[in-house]
Specification:
Length: about 350
């Protein structure tokens, strides 16, 4: 019997010496696997006479059971030890500062923020958003808007012209968002209520002018729309946008080829402190141009001015973003300086809504 005793001792030592789950598995295969040392002994039983098989067989089976149990116990021990080691290695120090996710470090540009704020306000009043191309034809940028051929108003726009095509026609970078009024009236039956945000271009560059800038146009066309509606709409807008309870506005007579009558609108403000305050004070600040859509413009879009009338306005977005958020130089808006955007930008998940607050 001593050969079985020896084998048992050897295997027990191997079992005790296995240091991880892979090693104990190797011991198991080597002992009680198909070709393991104990399994090989069991195979010899067939050749024994019945008497020997009785005693020897019982002893080998006993060995097999003892080794099997010892392996299972060691396996469980090693498994527990592995889990304990992992838990120890993977502990989290909850006192460490949180690493900010990209959605927290990215910033929304103030112009995008102001567009989101303004479209939230007009969306609430039942306006939809329209857009149009930045490369325009002379027809949409000027002619359809009632700029007569050769009229000095065309020169006033400091237009960027493209080279003439085969027919001698020059496309332009749109000088204002007003051409989208025409495209909207061509494609949509009144009643129309749209706002049109977008990029516009003029040859102009200093601390308050950039050759590429942003405007927002508004257009309302119906059968009975009048100047009172224009005034109410702009007043409601200014109160919501500047987040004040009341604003005083001044409508000064002005001229635009595409509106009659035309106005420039100033809002009352206080410039005595470091930042401009709205809804109070004795100063005035011009914020937009507007008027009743000219009958010629309606005609160009196939609308009968005896049936339809309405109003339009246009305002510079960059400047009102500067006013609202206190940026001193317009050129920084487009300098792509990450320090500027992280200082003046807005958190991406703070989406402006009227119920949640525009700028908070
Ligand atoms: N398009 C004008 C500009 O860029 C702004 C403007 C004035 C738009 C009056 C309008 C309007 O729709 O009615 O100077």
């Amino acid at each position: 019997m001593s050969d079985l005793e020896d084998l048992k001792q050897t295997l027990m030592a191997e079992i005790a010496g296995a240091g991880d789950e892979a090693q104990i598995e190797a011991v198991r295969v080597g002992a009680i696997g198909k070709k393991g040392s104990v399994s090989e002994l069991l195979k010899t039983l067939g050749k024994m006479d019945p008497e020997e098989r009785k005693t020897r067989g019982a002893a080998i089976n006993e060995l097999r059971n003892a080794v099997g149990e010892a392996i299972a116990a060691r396996k469980a021990e090693l498994k527990d030890a592995a889990i304990a080691a992992r838990l120890k290695a993977e502990t989290v120090d909850v006192t460490l500062p949180v690493r900010p996710s990209p959605s927290l470090s990215g910033r929304i540009h103030p112009v995008s923020q102001v567009i989101d704020e303004i479209t939230a306000i007009f969306g609430d009043m039942g306006f939809s958003i329209a857009e149009g191309p930045e490369i325009e034809t002379d027809y949409y940028n000027f002619t359809a808007l009632n700029f007569p051929e050769g009229h000095p108003a065309r020169e006033m726009h400091d237009t960027f012209f493209f080279n003439p095509d085969e027919e001698g026609k020059r496309k332009v970078l749109r000088t204002h968002t007003s051409p989208v009024q025409i495209r909207t009236m061509e494609n949509q039956e009144p009643p129309i209520r749209v706002v049109i945000p977008g990029k516009t271009y003029r040859q102009d560059s200093d601390a308050t002018h950039s050759p590429m800038f942003h405007q927002l146009e508004g257009l309302v066309i119906d059968k009975t729309t009048h100047v009172g509606h224009l005034r109410w709409t702009l007043e409601e807008f200014c109160k919501a946008f500047f987040e004040v309870d009341s604003v005083t506005m001044r409508f000064r007579p002005s001229f635009f080829p595409f509106t009659e009558p035309s106005f420039e609108v100033d809002i009352q403000c206080d410039r005595s402190g470091e930042q401009v305050k709205f809804g109070t004070g004795t100063d005035w600040m011009e914020i937009l141009g507007c008027g009743m859509v000219h009958p010629n413009v309606l005609r160009h879009c196939g609308l009968d001015p005896d049936v339809y009338q309405g109003f339009a306005w246009g305002m510079g977005l960059d400047r009102i973003a500067m006013l609202k958020y206190g940026m001193p130089d317009l050129r920084d808006f487009f300098a792509a300086d990450e320090r500027w955007t992280s200082h003046y930008g807005f958190r991406p998940l703070d989406i402006p809504t009227l119920f949640g607050g525009l700028s908070s």
